[in-house]
Specification:
The complex is a heterodimer of chains A (293) and B (692).
Chain A lengths: L5 H14 L3 E2 L14 H4 L9 E10 L15 E10 L5 H11 L9 E5 L2 E3 L4 E10 L2 E12 L2 E13 H8 L22 H19 L2 H20 L5 H20 L5 H27 L1
Parallel strand pairs in A: 1-2
Antiparallel strand pairs in A: 2-3, 3-8, 4-6, 5-6, 6-7, 7-8
Helix pairs in contact in A: 6-7, 6-8, 7-8
Chain B lengths: L4 E10 L4 H21 L6 E6 L3 E10 L5 E9 L4 H10 L8 E5 L2 E10 L4 H15 L19 E8 L2 E2 L3 E3 L5 E5 L2 E2 L7 E2 L7 H7 L6 H18 L3 E2 L3 H8 L6 E6 L9 H12 L2 E4 L5 E9 L5 H31 L2 H8 L11 H15 L8 H9 L8 H5 L6 H9 L4 H9 L14 H20 L13 H14 L6 H6 L3 H4 L2 H21 L4 H7 L10 H15 L2 H19 L17 H19 L5 H22 L7 H19 L10
Parallel strand pairs in B: 7-10
Antiparallel strand pairs in B: 1-3, 1-7, 2-3, 4-6, 5-6, 7-8, 9-10, 11-12, 13-15, 14-16, 15-16
Helix pairs in contact in B: 1-3, 7-8, 10-11, 10-15, 13-14, 14-15, 15-16, 15-19, 16-19, 22-24, 22-25, 23-24, 23-25
């Protein structure tokens, strides 16, 4: 049997969750550190519709994880496959195992394990209980029951399933190096592409940018501007919640970049995280208010 | 009539509960079932708790099938109460005046209604019992799911209740509208993917085993250990025993299947501890060692799938690949870290904050050097140059990549860096052992230097956090300062150290040791730790109170406290000692009862009339002299010589001398004599507190 390519894995998962009644969304068009930041997750689990089922792929950026394209396991840019279902269904674990079977990871043939991992996003003010899911010792998914977002209780509880797509592909294709992942399933001669063909160069360039060249002064400025604009938008007579939330996403990414540049001291770190958290809290609070009216 | 007994099983089936929480839940279920069953007056032989990641079960053996009938006497109004009141009483109790009885109480005559309450059956009660238990669990961490308001460690999916051979119907509430209904089935192993029916309570464990779930934790643990030892034997290797890992893994599987994988040769050059930590922390693998105690190139993974050649092979291959990725990261960091020298790391420490408001790790290292130099002599270690270096370099590895990735390797990594940089063996050991012992744990640093550094670490940590007001209160101790205090006391006691707590606190930075309030806070905190430590060690609290008081304990060296407690034991173990204590108590009581005499009053020799009191007086003079001579309170000295003599003198005194003489002067003189004896002995120890 031919091993699934990277894009086939995505297609199969999309197909599967679509059949489960999920609305298939596209990635959010901003730099985020995790699929959770997508407003379809961060805001929508707080209302207004308690029946909320979506799935989407989200490219993520984690500047400090860049390794100049030299480490076979770490990337500053990678993909998550995100499923959000609210309220969490009783058979969600079974559904998840079925989705794995769709991508040839049959739990009768592989040692699938749910290992405690409580999740927390300090910048989003979000927390949940759940597991990291292991497949033969490899962490392939983060599985979380959201209890709180933006400091507010999530009711009914939403479940978030986040597949690490590169990890899954490496596992399925039995590879040790992320860059050798078969992306499109074609032989080289007919336009076959590996993950490295598409992203290796970018990893190298962005690592240089993140660690060495990003303009620090400009970033500090931008961060402050984001905080200000977020407040301005929320303080309007008729608050603009989603645009304000965008500023929060932006600020979070700028903070990550500054962190990668090594210009944020340990003691300042906490203060920055707090600023972002306050922004997201205000946005969530405004979002809830609006939905109540 | 004898009540029929039944057996009962309650099976809570949930999504995977974390390993450590399973142990909590076992205890909690046991406690709560016990409590609720006692409340409803049902007696039983025992409760047995079974647990696995998805099952938590209570097996109640031989419980009453029905509550005992009860008759209650319900008190009504007085017989001369208004009619209305009496009628009301009759109405609420649905009875007639004729059926009431009249009883006399000390407040007059009252009507009483005899109420008969028929005992309910256990199967009628079980639903409420379970509901109450579920609602009473005080989870350390819990969650809601879907629309539930009920909280559980992870979502609770099914409940099955069996009494003997039959399933019980019932339900528990999860919110205002929804329930979890009791089912007549539970679930087996995930790979089985189907429901399991159980014929009777007795069959449960076996039925589950046939469905690939070992619900009994101990059985599961034993199964893992047996498989491990079988594999190690086959490979002619030994298993590197790790109980905490074994316990954790036992909580991660329902059907353990131990598999062996290989470690690539290129990674075997990594030090033992690094290999072992990478395998343990991230992957929960066990290590194997050869006969020369070197790490063997294998790992043991415990899978949760039933054995099958093909799947086992796949699972091993997957695990090998994951480990390869982890080890290649570790190897990269290790080689990178080894290239850097001590001055590089020392500089890097300046960029790492110890804690906000407490400076960086370089500052901390400098402080440790100074403390080391001050307390070194009490450990009979006087090489100041070495003590200084020991502190200065003690935190270097905290700036290495490997410790950044695996914090558990702190100390161990420093040992290897020190070795590479040509440090002596004793320094290497001290660096590695500086975080021992953990609290009251018995695992001590292996040499004096290690002990010194450990004490410095802990006293510095305490003074730092206390200085910015982060003092443990109640159950809140986020920086584990109590553990720091315990570790420190543990070492000083273990070493019979010649430091007192006062001297230890004096070894801190001058600025700190001059702040009276701060010093007192630290001192009182450590005194509490010491007291708790000695109780933990099994010393009786009366003995401790006899010797230790808040006023004097901080001045005594650990050596002194230790020898005083030892001497006290000796006294309590001899007959003459026991007699002495009861005689002392008699004196103590007499002097306590009599009015306080002015301090100016002293025993007057001329007022001593009888031979017996004269002899006692001479003994007193001798005693006060000897106590003055040895300002150190030396029990051994007074013990054998004095107790026999004192006992016979005081007994003769009590036999022949009447303290309450008609002549007030003579009486007071006698009381003063006894009081002086009391004071002399009390200086040594508050004997009156001792239980004999």
């Amino acid at each position: 049997m031919q091993k699934l390519s990277f894009q086939e894995i995505i297609l199969k998962l999309l197909n599967f969750w679509s059949k489960q009644g999920c609305t298939i969304l596209q990635p959010y068009d901003m730099e985020v550190g995790a699929g959770t930041f997508h407003p379809a997750t961060a805001l929508n689990v707080l209302g207004p519709n308690p029946l909320w089922k979506v799935a989407y792929v989200q490219p993520c950026r984690r500047p400090t994880d860049g390794r100049y394209g030299e480490n076979p396991n770490r990337l500053q840019h990678y993909y998550q496959f995100q499923v959000i279902i609210q309220p969490s269904p009783d058979n969600i674990q079974d559904l998840y195992l079925k989705s794995l079977k769709e991508i040839n990871l049959d739990h009768l043939l592989h040692d699938i394990r749910f290992v405690e991992d409580d999740w927390e996003s300090p910048t989003l003010g979000a927390a949940g209980l759940g597991w990291e899911v292991w497949c033969d010792g490899m962490e392939v998914t983060q599985f979380t029951y959201f209890q709180q977002v933006g400091g507010f209780e999530v009711r009914p509880v939403a479940v978030e399933i986040t597949y690490g797509l590169e990890r899954l592909a490496m596992f399925i294709q039995e590879l040790d190096d992320v860059y050798s992942i078969d992306f499109n399933g074609l032989p080289k001669s007919s336009g076959g592409k590996s993950y490295g063909d598409i992203f290796k160069d970018a990893e190298k360039e962005y690592s240089e940018y993140n660690f060495e060249n990003a303009n620090v002064d400009k970033l500090f400025n931008e961060f402050d501007n984001c905080v200000k604009e977020c407040n301005d938008l929320i303080s309007l007579e008729k608050p603009l919640v989603k645009p304000a939330y965008d500023q929060c996403i932006k600020a979070s990414h700028i903070f990550n970049l500054l962190d990668a540049r090594g210009v944020i001291s340990v003691s300042e770190r906490q203060a920055y995280i707090l600023k972002v958290r306050n922004m997201s809290k205000t946005c969530c609070s405004e979002w809830i208010k609006r939905n109540e009216n | 009539m004898k009540i029929k007994k039944v057996n009962c099983l309650i099976d809570f089936f949930s999504e995977e509960i974390p390993a450590s929480m399973q142990l909590f839940l076992e205890k909690e279920l046991n406690l709560l079932f016990e409590k609720v069953l006692n409340k409803v007056l049902l007696s039983y032989e025992k409760i047995e708790i079974l647990s696995s990641p998805r099952h938590h079960c209570a097996l109640i053996h031989n419980i009453d099938s029905v509550q005992k009938d009860q008759t209650l006497d319900i008190k009504g109004p007085r017989i001369d109460a208004p009619k209305l009141a009496i009628e009301g009483f009759l109405k609420t109790n649905k009875t007639t005046l004729k059926k009431l009885t009249v009883n006399k109480t000390n407040k007059g005559e009252f009507y009483f209604h005899k109420k008969f309450i028929k005992g309910k059956t256990f199967s009628q009660l079980i639903n409420n019992i379970i509901q109450e238990v579920c609602a009473s669990i005080s989870w350390p961490k819990s969650q809601r799911w879907g629309y539930s308001d009920l909280k559980w460690g992870r979502p609770l999916r099914n409940i099955m209740v069996l009494i003997d051979k039959s399933c019980v119907n019932g339900k528990i509430k999860i919110n205002d509208h929804d329930f979890i209904k009791f089912k007549n089935y539970t679930f087996g192993h995930r790979s089985l993917n189907k429901t399991v029916r159980v014929n009777s309570v007795e069959d449960f464990i076996n039925t589950m085993k046939n469905s690939y779930v070992f619900v009994n934790r101990l059985q599961r643990k034993k199964a893992i250990e047996m498989q491990i030892s079988k594999i190690s034997k086959k490979l002619n290797l030994n298993y590197y025993r790790d109980d905490s890992l074994l316990n954790e893994v036992t909580g991660l599987v329902e059907f353990p299947n131990v598999l062996v994988g290989k470690i690539d040769k290129q990674y075997m050059k990594l030090p033992f501890e690094i290999l072992s930590i990478v395998m343990k922390v991230h992957q929960k693998y066990f290590s194997l060692i050869d006969n020369s105690k070197k790490m063997a190139p294998y790992f043991l993974a415990v899978s949760n799938l039933k054995p099958n050649n093909q799947t086992d092979k796949n699972v091993v291959r997957g695990n090998e690949r994951v480990l390869r990725a982890r080890l290649s990261d570790a190897l990269f960091f290790w080689e990178y870290d080894c290239k850097n020298d001590f001055s590089y790391y020392l500089n890097k420490l300046k960029t790492i904050i110890f804690y906000e408001g407490l400076g960086d790790l370089h500052d901390r290292s400098l402080r440790l050097s100074k403390i080391n130099e001050k307390i070194g002599p009490s450990f009979n270690f006087k090489d100041n140059k070495k003590l200084n270096k020991l502190g200065l370099y003690s935190k270097l590895d905290l700036s290495s990549n490997l410790v950044g990735e695996f914090p558990e390797l702190q100390g161990t990594m420093l040992k290897y860096l020190a070795k590479l940089n040509g440090f002596s063996k004793d320094m290497q050991i001290a660096f590695e052992d500086q975080y021992k012992p953990v609290g009251l744990n018995k695992n001590m640093p292996r040499n004096k230097l290690g002990s010194i550094l450990s004490v410095s670490n802990n006293i510095d940590t305490l003074s730092c956090f206390f200085s910015i007001g982060l003092i443990p209160t109640g159950s809140r101790d986020p920086f584990a300062l109590r553990r720091s205090g315990n570790s420190l006391i543990n070492i000083l006691w273990h070493e019979s150290n010649t430091l007192s707590l006062d001297q230890l606190i004096n070894s801190l930075d001058e600025k700190l040791s001059k702040e009276v309030k701060l010093v007192n806070e630290i001192k009182n905190f450590l005194i509490d730790r010491l007291y708790n430590f000695l109780i933990e060690k099994g010393f009786r609290s009366d003995k401790l109170s006899a010797i230790i008081s808040k006023d004097n304990i901080a001045q005594k060296t650990f050596l002194e406290i230790k020898s005083e407690l030892k001497a006290l034991d000796k006294i309590l173990n001899t007959k003459s000692g026991i007699i002495f204590i009861s005689n002392f108590k008699r004196i103590y009581n007499i002097t306590k009862k009599s009015e306080t005499l002015p301090n100016s009053l002293i025993v007057k020799e001329e007022l001593l009339i009888l031979k017996e009191e004269m002899q006692l007086y001479n003994f007193l003079t001798k005693l006060s002299k000897s106590n003055k001579i040895s300002s150190e309170l030396n029990y051994n000295k007074i013990q054998s010589d004095h107790f026999n003599e004192f006992n016979s003198l005081i007994e003769k005194f009590f036999d022949n001398v009447l303290v309450n003489d008609k002549n007030n002067h003579i009486k007071n003189n006698r009381i003063k004599l006894l009081e002086s004896i009391k004071l002399n002995f009390e200086m040594i120890c508050k004997f009156q507190i001792l239980k004999i």
